[in-house]
Amino acid sequence: MNNRIRHSGIITDIEGHLVHVSIQQSSACDSCKVAHHCNAAESKDKTIDISVHDASEYVVGQRVSVSTSGRVGMMAVVWAYVLPLVLMLGVMIVTLVISDDEMLSAFMSLCSLVPYYILVYLLRSRIQQQVAFQIDSIE
After folding, report:
1. pLDDT in tens, 19-63
2. What is the DSSP letter of 139?
3. Cα–Cα distance between 5 and 76 in angstroms, integer?
């Protein structure tokens, strides 16, 4: 089963064994004919750092195809959406049961995200070790 996430990109920089690839992440409606008139359509440039064994075969400006496993994509969804949602709902329910104040419950659930994202920031090097991209082919 080949469930890899692939993106096409351009090499922007090479530092030793580290290749920086710029990809354009676009929304699903980007291919729509009226997408340029719609605020829902968006695209963003992202830079991916890829560690390679032999960087001499790559040059700046070269188009490449990069990929990662579907497991990494699912892990990103869990860290970015599932865990914060579960944390917010848990804090909101516990605060609502204890205080019976909806405004305080909503405020506390939002405040619970501050330590969560601080923790994610502190663990960023560990998370980066688990997120491994590779260059599949030169286009």
Report:
1. 999 998 665 555 565 555 555 555 678 888 888 888 888 999 999
2. -
3. 12
In the chain, pLDDT over 90 holds for what percent of residues?
A: 46
Query: How would you class 66 by CB atoms within 10 Å of its CB: exposed for 0-12, middle for 13-18, buried for 19 or more?
Result: buried
Those residues whose C-beta lies under 8 Å from the C-beta of residue 80, and which sit 6 or more positions away, are none
Looking at residue 116, its pLDDT comes to 96
Radius of gyration of the chain from Cα atoms?
Answer: 20
Which DSSP state fits 80?
A: I
Burial status of residue 124 (CB atoms within 10 A of its CB: 0-12, 13-18, 19 or more)? exposed
3-state SS assignment for residue 2: coil
d(CA 132, CA 52): 11
Please give the structure tokens belonging to residue 100.
């019976």
Please give the angle made by the CA atoms of 11, 48 and 53, to the nearest 5 degrees: 70
Distance CA 110, CA 19 (A): 38
Q: How far is CA 110 from the centre of its chain?
A: 21
**Backbone φ, ψ for residue 123 (5° rounding):** -95, 10
The whole-model pTM stands at 0.67
Task: State the CB neighbour count (10 A cutoff) for residue 64.
Answer: 19
